[in-house]
Amino acid sequence: MRLRHKLPNVFGLYMVDVLCCSLGCVILLWLFNDYKSTLLNQDLEAKGRELARLTEEQRERSKELATAREALARREAEAKKLATELDDRQKELEKLGGDLFALNDRLRKERATRDALEKDLGTTRAALKAEEGLNAQSRATIASDAKRMAELKAELQTRLALLTARDLEMATLRVRKDELEEQSRLGREQNKELEAKLALARVEAEKRGRELAEGMAARDKTEKALTLTAEKMAALEKMLAAADAARGKSEKSREETERALASTMASRAKADKALDEKIERMENLEASLAREARLRKEAETARVTLEKQLQANALEMNKQKNRAESRFEGIDLTGRKVCFVVDTSGSMVLLDANTPADQKWNEVGRVLGRLMDSLPELESYQVLVFAEEARWLFNDSGWRKYDPAKSSTEVREALGRINPRGGTNLHQAFEMAFKLRAEGLETVYLLSDGLPNQGPGLTITQERTLAESQRGEILGRYIRQELADKWNQAPKTDAPRPVRIHTVGFFYESPDLGSFLWALARENRGRFVGMSSP
Question: 507 and 357 in contact (C-beta within 8 Å)?
Fold first, then answer.
């Protein structure tokens, strides 16, 4: 077996460049994460202020809603008062129902008459059908008669409708007339009482006149009786004048009653208008309350949405924090579907060409198990082992479901049954691993200790003449070019997104090995870490 690298005699300055670049990348990544955390905190503070503002607006709207409810209670009291007035109006409508019943009775009689006419029309039509054998002139006459009958029927229906409308109008007028007649009747009764008193006064006056005549005939008997009679006549004349004044007053009272009736009708119209306005105000208030309820619901929805967004932001921050904390020796532990590519060549049990490393291979299994258990999003995995040829560790190419209780133990036990030997064909390993890209492959973790020394990328002359370090450098560049152009190229349309590749180098002592694994990870959005001691 040939070693893939050799120990350098002098520490090269380019290794300082590599370390400085790595340190610069780490510092830039730390600054970027700190800036991103600051932006997230500012966003959370702004959203907290927005939530406080929405809460204050909700309190103000609750106060406005309480005020609106008090106004609604007052208006409900007004509505009850209006309902009492409506009950009074309902009683008046019931009074009008009797008149409407009489009109309905009359309408039934008219309908009976119409039915009789329709019956006669049916009889006429039957007669017309019986006389279908008549000549064309008779038929024309019959058609004309039928048309005339239809016109008469339509005219009858029109007159019935007009009659119904007029009857309703007459019923309204009768109601008003009855009210006026009732008031006039009261006035007439008062007039009759006054007229009766006037008649009594006249009878009394006539009687007193006769007595006066008798007194004048007996004037010479007593002057005192004459004076008394004159006083009584004056009183009677005053009574007569009072009766005439009372009659005029009664007439004036009747006129005032009529004006009061007209005023009452106007007041009733105003009351109806006021009732309509109050009903409209109540409807506006209900619309306002509905609008307030809708705004309150929208505010509650906005609050819930903001709380969910804050929770999502908190989860995202925790997730990012966990990602920042769950780093394996500086490698971001990401990926739900992950393929672990493990080098099983002969150098994986050697420290150098003459020094075996008893714990090296066991350390590879331990690191891989710890790496699997540290991935926070791992759902499915696959392990590919390679030396001169590549194969799946469990002899199945599909995804295996990750079980935190036993998956890492199964992988360590399976790797423990392998005896590393042979060369390093990294090209075939990547070619097999990237077949999983179409099935959702997200991340590849490469665990190796050296440069590739087998696979395509060399001419026959180069294979015979070049030293192993030179061959490894050429094969490494070829694999990186294959990744960029073929296996892991950026998507153009609907192709899967590029796969992230992290590399872990075991006990590397060669600058060439370190630079190859570092470049491989950097070009594929990954990180490189070197395990320099067990």
Answer: yes
Query: pLDDT tens string for the chain (534 positions)?
Result: 455 555 554 556 667 777 888 888 888 888 888 888 888 888 788 877 888 888 887 788 778 777 877 877 787 787 778 777 777 776 776 676 666 666 667 767 777 777 776 777 677 666 666 655 555 565 565 566 567 666 766 666 676 666 666 667 666 666 666 666 676 677 667 666 666 666 676 666 667 667 666 656 665 665 565 565 556 666 666 766 666 676 677 667 667 766 766 676 676 667 667 767 767 777 777 777 778 778 778 877 777 777 777 777 767 666 555 554 555 666 778 899 999 999 999 888 887 767 788 788 999 999 999 999 889 899 999 999 999 999 999 988 889 999 999 999 999 999 999 999 999 999 999 999 999 998 999 999 999 987 898 999 888 888 888 888 888 889 999 999 999 999 988 766 665 688 999 999 886 555 656 788 889 999 999 998 887 655
Tokens 């152009």, located at residue: 485
* DSSP conformation letters of 213-269: HHHHHTTTT-HHHHHHHHHHHHHHHHHHHHHHHHHHHHHHHHHHHHHHHHHHHHHHH
Element (H, E) at 350: strand 350-352
List the domain boundaries for the chain: 330-531
Closest to 407 in 3D by CA, of 435, 370, 439, 376: 370
Q: Which class in CATH covers the domain with range 330-531?
A: alpha beta
Q: What is the pTM of this model?
A: 0.43
């070019």: which residue's tokens?
Answer: 481
